[in-house]
Write a structure and sequence with these properties.
Blueprint: H1 2-15, H2 25-68, H3 70-78, H4 83-120, H5 133-150, H6 152-160, H7 163-168
Length: about 170
């Protein structure tokens, strides 16, 4: 809003009029741009919260999976699977879960976004749906990083467990 006020004062100074005499599309556009900037900041903050929630969700799902399958993981280790291979197996599981969720989220989000845009379209306007492939690829790359981060503690827990102790568990 401060930028819009400065712009209004600058235009009024150039035209040698008072700011109360200004109006029209320029100031209206500046107001809309300012409002959209605020809305974008709110949406980005909500996105950041969603990413944190997804990391916690994937971490808890993977942790639960590791706890439930401690005997199976120990049996695999006893049969010759290395710690590195077990960690890679768990990371891949987290990656598959996250990639499926990300792809579904991207498709559904894009479709809802298009429905929202189409609901605002006035008769006579033409709207060409565009798929932001670059953004989608960036989000998928971020999902891979999130999967690795979210699976770090479950991998550590699974690889630290001694195979003999894991096979002896009754839970």
């Amino acid at each position: 809003m401060q930028e819009a006020t400065k712009l209004e004062e600058s235009v009024a100074k150039i035209l040698h009029v008072g700011t109360d005499q200004l109006g029209g599309a320029l100031l209206e556009k500046a107001g809309y741009v300012n409002l959209l900037d605020i809305l974008l900041a709110v949406v980005l903050a909500l996105l950041a919260v969603a990413v944190v929630v997804s990391v916690l969700g994937i971490a808890s799902t993977t942790s639960l999976s590791v706890l439930e399958r401690s005997r199976e993981n120990s049996l695999l280790r006893a049969l010759g699977l290395s710690k590195r291979q077990l960690g890679a197996l768990i990371r891949r599981e987290a990656l598959v879960i996250l990639l499926v969720a990300t792809v579904v989220g991207l498709v559904v989000g894009w479709l809802f976004g298009m429905l929202g845009v189409m609901s605002l379209v006035v008769e006579g306007m033409t709207v060409r749906p565009v798929v932001p492939w670059g953004g989608f690829l960036l989000i998928l790359a971020g999902a891979v990083v999130v999967a690795v981060i979210a699976s770090a503690l479950p991998v550590r827990r699974a690889t630290k467990l001694n195979p003999v102790e894991g096979l002896a568990r009754v839970d």
